[in-house]
Hints:
single chain, mainly alpha, 0% strand
Amino acid sequence: MYQKIIAFRRxxxxxxxxxxxxxxDKNGYDINFSAINVKLPTPLxxxxxxxxxxxxxxxxxxxxxxxxxxxxxxxxxHLKNIFIKTEAQNRTDLIHRLRLYSEDGIYT
Length: 108
C-alpha cells in the first residue's frame, strides 16, 4: 500500500512539473519569484509560490488543495496572505501584478 501511495505522489509531482513547463512554453516566460521577492516588502514563502504556480494554471481552490495535499482552507489562507503581500484585489489582478513585478517595474 505504501509503495502505491509513493508511486501516486510521484506521478502527481511529474504532472505538476509537466504543467509548469507547458506554462513556460506557452507564455514564453515563467513568473520570476526572485525578482518579485526583492520588490515585495514581505517575500512570498515557498508554499505561496507553489499556490501561485497552480493558480496561474487556472485551477480552483479545491484543485490546488488536492494537488498540494492540503485542505481547501489552507489554500484560502495562503491566497489571503498572497493578496495582502501583493495588494492584489483578485486572482486576475494577482497574476497581472506578479508578471509586472517579474519584468522590471513595480506596480503602482
